[in-house]
Design goal:
This protein is α/β, with parallel strands linked by helices. The protein has one domain: PAC-like subunit (Rossmann fold, 3-Layer(aba) Sandwich). 38% of the residues lie in helices and 21% in strands. Strands 1-3-6-7-2-8-10-9 form an 8-stranded mixed sheet, with helices on both faces. The two termini are 28 Å apart.
């Protein structure tokens, strides 16, 4: 395999953290409701940061499969939104530095890129890597956003009962990074927010807020969430107004609430009946697992 160091350019080899946390969120897959993109935008818009490394996407990105958006005005092109992938150092609200890998998920050289991320993890002595993802879920927007937690070490996700058993899903770079880091002795984990399936194409900052809340809890970082919470409240109010204006939509959400509450009740009863604590694996409905599988397959086949 060609040297993975050739995939990135270090802007600086010195960072302020001795053993930082590294967060990562890549757009293009597993980002229902644009939850990861909004979370990254909030962090970069709220906190001091600087670029540590950049990746040259010309050899990694399929521009014809995911054509960059260009703006044409009257008789000339004005601008183009080219994809980027970069590692930045961010300071949280308490001044603690951490790393953030963000940008477009590349189409090519996944194994080399995964190795490159591991080299950066080693170079900067990263103590924990955390991925942020979002998937559609048969859940109503009127209920708290759930998360599926996963990790290279079960101790990292203690207290997070699993929602699904074993299932095969299309490969994605974020999952490959976590898997590779685990295979090489590094602690890595991730959170997938459950976005109501009827909101996957819209911006859903409630899921972004949930992701950052769980990231803060797992990492100990102090993340400013006030503005994101306000955006989430505004969005929920707009969604509620739109749904309430249509009796059919309101009835569909009410039916989904009943189904979702029944699933949660079943999970709680199963735990009580077996004497299992919150860490024990609890079964989930086949319908939920099947819907997640279908979504992931559709994303793989129709990604644009």
């Amino acid at each position: 395999m060609p040297d993975p160091r050739l995939l990135f350019d270090l802007v600086t080899s010195e960072i302020d953290a001795a053993s930082p946390v590294l967060l990562h969120s890549l757009t293009g897959f597993l980002d229902a409701g644009q939850a990861g993109r909004l979370a990254v935008g909030h962090l970069l818009g709220s906190l001091e940061h600087r670029v540590v490394a950049t990746f040259d996407l010309d050899d990694l990105y399929d521009y014809r499969a995911r054509r960059p958006r260009m703006t044409f005005r009257s008789d000339h092109f004005v601008s183009v939104e080219m994809p980027t992938l970069e590692l930045v150092e961010v300071r949280d609200a308490a001044g603690t530095p951490f790393l953030l890998l963000h940008g477009a998920e590349p189409d090519h050289a996944w194994q080399r890129l995964t190795a490159a991320v591991r080299l950066l993890v080693d170079q900067f002595r990263v103590r924990l890597t955390i991925g942020m993802h979002a998937i559609p879920w048969p859940a109503p927007h009127t209920r708290p956003v759930g998360v599926t937690a996963h990790a290279t070490d079960a101790a990292l996700v203690a207290g997070y009962p699993p929602w699904v058993g074993e299932l095969e899903v299309p490969g994605h770079l974020a999952g490959l990074i976590e898997l590779h880091l685990g295979d090489t002795g590094h602690d890595a984990m991730g959170f997938a927010a459950h976005v109501p399936h009827y909101l996957v194409a819209a911006e859903f900052p409630t899921a972004s807020l949930t992701l950052l809340e769980h990231v803060a809890r797992a990492s100990g970082l102090s993340l400013p969430l006030g503005e994101l919470a306000e955006a989430a409240d505004r969005t929920l109010a707009e969604i509620e107004a739109q749904i309430s204006a249509n009796p059919e939509n309101a009835a569909a959400v009410a039916a989904l609430e009943a189904q979702y509450d029944a699933v949660l009740s079943s999970r709680a009863l199963d735990g009580a009946a077996t004497g299992a604590g919150p860490d024990a694996p609890l079964p989930t409905g086949d319908e939920i697992a099947a819907q997640v599988e279908r979504f992931l397959a559709d994303m793989d086949d129709g990604q644009a």
